[in-house]
Amino acid sequence: MKALVCMLLLTACGDAATPDHDTIDADTADTAEVTPGTLTFHATPSSGEAVVVRQASLSADELVLEVATSGLQADDQVFAIGARLTYDPDVLSFIDATPGEAWDGAVTDASAARPGTLVLAVAHPHAFFEEPGPPLGDEVLYRLRFAITRVAATPLTLVASRSRALVWPGPSSDPQRRLSISFVGGALTLD
Amino acid sequence: MLTPLLAALLAATPAEQRGFDITALDYVVVLDPATGVTHGTLAISVTVVTSDAHELEVTFDAGLSLESAKIQGSDAGLTVVPAATTPLRSVGLMFDDALAAGDTRVIEVTLDGTLACNVSDIQGHRACKRGAAFGYLRRQSVLPTVHDAADTTSYELYRRSLSLTLPAEVDAVATGDAVATTTTDGQTTRVWASTIVHDVQDLVVVFGALTSLSIDDGELPVTLWYPRGDEAWVDDMRAWIAIAMPFHAALAGRSLPLDGVDIVKLPDDPGFAGTATAGMVLLSEGYGNLGAGNFEQTLAHELSHLWWGNLAYADERGAWLLEGLARYSELEYITARYPAGEAGFEADDGSLRSRWHADLMRYTLRSKAPLVLTGIAQPPSDIVDYEAWAYARGAATLDHLRVVIGRAAFAAGLARWADDCAFVRCTSDDFRTFMEEASGKDLAAFFAQYVYATTFTDLAYAFTQARTASGVDVTVSFTQVPAADSTLELWLEHEDGSVDKQLVDMTGASGSVTLASAAPVVRVRPNPYDDPIVWSRSQVDGDVDFDGAVDGVDVVTCAQYVALGFPAVQSSTTLLDVVPIDFRCDLDHDGVVDGADLALIAADFGTLEAVLP
Fold it and tell me: What ipTM did this prediction achieve?
């Protein structure tokens, strides 16, 4: 059934931009707002089953984040996740999004339709009982690449009221176990 | 303001007629259960209502012959006209002399022969089953039905009795109060009587080797009967009955005015799956084949008919106050019993049951017959369509009415229906009156659109927000085709998850309404109970969760149906086949939510809601 729909849709617009190295180099920038210092990403601590944001890499001009599941049991079946991530568009500029390896063949979508707002979705396009989703445990959903356009702090918030997950507890789970997925973001801070 | 559509609907009022008032049916039957050889008489007492009174149609088993038909004890005065011979035999009894309003007559028909017990409809039902170990008689066996040829509603309310003689070793239980038992020469004669019954309900005798046990439900003496030695489901049924009977009494606001209730567990036999009669409920253990939940839910449905059909019934052509009320009661019961959804229904907001009903309305209900039929309108002939019309649409209309007038008023109105219409002639207009008096609301438009006509609107709305001194004004603008008077309970969802519920009237082809909210809202969605009747959607294509955006939540909302791999709703051949998709996810309107629908959401993905200034 994987042949039903296999597509990868990446819609990047709005604040997607090629990073300008001259403006984001903390050591050489000469604007008043830029303060020499070290940018650090801090993930907000999470507990239980969650979708979290964590750092993959951070350089002077680029931040790569992973949106990932956390706290899931190894055989939990993640079928779809939709999330909204907000950030300061004066600090970060969205470049692109790449789904995690487990989502090969899935319906995926990412759009920075408004500066500072990124909407994401991954969904398997086939019936669960015909072809179960990947038994994930903790797995990367998306890898997000941002250009750092200004050296400053910004929260990176997964907006719970506009995010949702579709997860089946694994077959070995307690039948009474009910998953309640929380969405936990982080922050880029200037230390 | 009345829309042209509504004005036209209001002008159409039901007009029904009849010739006779059947006041009593008294059956006397002798039966050899093993062979089906039987002899029976039926005394039909009538009062002439109008000059249309001229013929009574009598229908019975094809293996029997009409030995005689007398009026006032005389062979003269009636002409017998054969009408049908198979699968049931039917004759017309024509009155030779003109009758005047107020005249009373007693017509006695005598039947003889051997029961054929033919399959009598496309569902495989039979009106009887022969057998010394287990058998049954229903109406249209040696217990004829009687129909006034001039009656357009087929509704009667009368006294009924049955005297049945069987071999002494054969047990029997029948509809009505057991009033006498005598045994002579190895034959036992039992008499059952009902002071008053609605004709819609069957008359049933179950006979053979039977076991009975008493159940204390705190309301009435209840006896559970089953074939001797067949203990399957007996303990379950006993437990369910003890819970369901008081539940239904509370829902109806009153107990049953009966001396007791008999409940019969039937063997798994497609010829007779069960029914509810006056003070008696019968149900096949075959319902357990689909699981205990299905059995319990169906039993709850049939038990509710002790109130909806046995106690109160509508004198009109329609089934929404019979099957619709029973489905409503059954769903209320199962929702209360399994609040966490173990039985498949969600207790929180009724969304699953409403999706199921909404799918039936949109995809299977090909007939546009109104809930109350007038003129030449006929009920749907297709079985799925009929069930969608009588059961699902009836219950969904009641659900929507409850939202419109509020739960307390609805409960009060329902109690009036159970009380004021107990064993008297009532109609949907009476039901409307009770609901109006309980709520203080004019329900003319509601009944005109949804009961006496079929008005499903395509209603699309969007919302904007503006800050005020005390919070936020939420302006909802809508369009609807056709123009109608729709009422939705809008759920204003805030960032913190709290919900503010506001009832909104949307009148005409388009308009807007402004709602005050204490805080900014994330979504403005309708109460799910409104969905089957008022087909609402967001004006933003692909926005299925009513937040004005097409984002990940929309994908996930619809992906769950893809994940479950539900077949197309239109391919359903029975009501149970219909799976509850959210019709708003069926963006290409093909009756199934699949990858193609996710692709359509993807086409608009990233559309965001307006920013609150």
Answer: 0.79
